[in-house]
Amino acid sequence: MAKGFREFLSADGKGMKLALVILLGLTLILIGSFGSSSALKESEKSTEERLAETCSMMEGVGECHVTLSYSSDDKVYAVLVLCEGAESPQVRERITDVFRSLYGIGSNRVEIQKLNK
């Protein structure tokens, strides 16, 4: 089997070119999958930071941090919000309503906790 493969590679150089093209294609696929994963994580981080900044502008929220959890199909599954105003039922309700509206998730998937400084 190995002898046949060597003959294929050396026959008119066509086999070698084909093998190199396949190897190059596989390499590009691997590189692309690493790059997109990194870019996706960066995008998720940026989204969390924007959400935290927006929530902190709401009355009574104060400093805020947001963490999003994703399902296997990349939809937001749950949200964790840490904020200074978490003790206020009104603040909790407003934050919950925001995330329910944005992501179409139930209130049971929005967790709001007091930010510990």
Quaternary state, please? single chain
Q: CATH superfamily assignment?
A: ANL, C-terminal domain
What is the rounded Rg? 25 Å
Q: On the 0-100 scale, what is the average pLDDT?
A: 82
DSSP helical segment count: 3
How many domains, as an integer? 1
Enter the CATH topology name: GMP Synthetase, Chain A, domain 3
Low-confidence stretches: none
Q: What is the correct CATH architecture? A: 2-Layer Sandwich
Biggest beta-sheet profile: 3 strands, mixed
Helix content: 55-70%
Helix-strand category: alpha+beta
Q: Tell me the β content.
A: 15-25%
Report the order of strands and helices.
Answer: HHEEHE
Overall morphology: rod-shaped
Terminal CA distance: 67 Å
Strand order of the largest sheet: 1-2-3
Q: Please tally the β strands and state the result.
A: 3
Describe this structure in words.
- The chain has 117 residues and is α+β, with helices and mostly antiparallel strands.
- It has a single domain, classed as 2-Layer Sandwich (GMP Synthetase, Chain A, domain 3), CATH 3.30.300.
- It is built from 3 helices and 3 strands; from the N terminus they run ααββαβ.
- The protein has helices spanning 2-10, 14-56, 89-103; strands at residues 64-70, 76-83, 110-114.
- It has a 3-stranded mixed sheet with strand order 1-2-3.
- The protein is rod-shaped.
- The N and C termini lie far apart (67 Å).
- The mean pLDDT is 82.
What is the compact description of this entry?
The protein is of the alpha+beta class and 117 residues long. It contains three helices and three strands.
